[in-house]
Amino acid sequence: MVANPKSKIQNPKLAGAHSIASLIAFVALVLAIVLGIGVWIVHSRSGRPSMHAAMSAEERAYLQHIVISDAKVSAATNFLGDMVTYVDAKVTNTGTGPVRQLDLSLEFSDMLNQVVLRETAHPITSQAPPLRPGETRGFRVTLERMPVEWNQAPPAITAVGLHF
């Protein structure tokens, strides 16, 4: 029997390139899996449920007793040389019960009064003392990136979620 001269003779350069390509694909797959798990963990830990979706009817009705006043916008340069925007305002509980958690929506507009940025602030959290009936408390929201289209006016601030 005569051996076929076209038998399996491998080119060492092709074999090396094939193993490098396989290694790169394997590393990319492992990185994608690790990244996916990391994103899932971050979202599962920090992603507390949307407060206004879990509010009782009584808590939704109480939103009208949260008054936001004295909203002012200022800006400063941080130590890295970046511009940081601050929104300082006051929140007052005009109702009869304490508020233990509060979510506010901040809407920044452009010159045509179209919303160009929405942010959520949490001025009252479970780690802070509750906002007592009749109490007014100041809060600050720090923003690192503002849209160029923003009209430089204070945002519209509304209470969107709370817990007693």
Q: Gap between N and C termini, in Å? A: 91 Å
Sheet-strand content, in percent, reads 35-45%
Query: If you average the pLDDT, what whole number results?
Result: 85
- The helicity comes to 25-40%
Protein architecture, described:
This protein has helices at residues 12-46, 57-62; strands at 66-77, 83-93, 101-109, 115-124, 136-143, 156-163. The chain is extended. It folds into 2 domains: 12-47; 51-163, Immunoglobulin-like. The model is unreliable at 45-50 (pLDDT under 50). The longest helix is centred in the N-terminal third of the chain and has 35 residues, at 12-46. β1 (66-77) and β2 (83-93) form a beta hairpin. The strands form 2 sheets. Strands 1-2-5 form a 3-stranded antiparallel sheet, with no helix packed on it. Strands 4-3-6 form a 3-stranded antiparallel sheet. It has 164 residues and is α+β, with helices and mostly antiparallel strands.
